[in-house]
Design a protein that fits this description.
STM4215-like, alpha+beta, elongated
């Protein structure tokens, strides 16, 4: 399996298994009721040695809420962050070296939904 697919599946499976919130990869279903969490791939770079390889990738992971104020989304995102920061996630055919939040995001979209989350960096190395 390629590294990009393995990382996306690992993130999705980890959150889907350990969170009570609906989890979506790349795009949520239309007309669903918030709150829900969306995992979005941002970018990745390959890393090589003479006889092995790895990948470093960034993902935006955010909670979407339809509440008037962002406090509920912030609380829900806190639970998601606890599941991710320095987690031991199984990534097929790879060793996860680390998963760590690099930055926070918070904004209201065009439908006035709160989007609260973070940009997470994953480092993996081929077994």
């Amino acid at each position: 399996m390629n590294n990009l697919l393995a990382m996306g599946k690992a993130l999705y499976n980890h959150l889907d298994t350990n969170s009570s919130m609906p989890i979506y990869y790349q795009k949520a279903k239309q007309n669903i009721k918030p709150p829900f969490c969306v995992i979005t791939f941002i970018s990745a770079t390959d890393d090589y040695t003479f006889n092995s390889s790895g990948m470093n990738a960034d993902y935006m992971i955010k909670v979407v809420s339809d509440k008037l104020f962002p406090d509920t989304a912030i609380e829900d995102y806190g639970a998601i962050h606890t599941l991710l920061q320095d987690a031991s996630i199984a990534v097929e055919d790879n060793v996860l070296l680390r998963i760590r939040r690099e930055s926070l995001i918070q904004f209201q979209d065009s439908q006035d939904f709160w989007n609260v989350g973070g940009i997470y960096n994953l480092d993996i190395w081929k077994i």
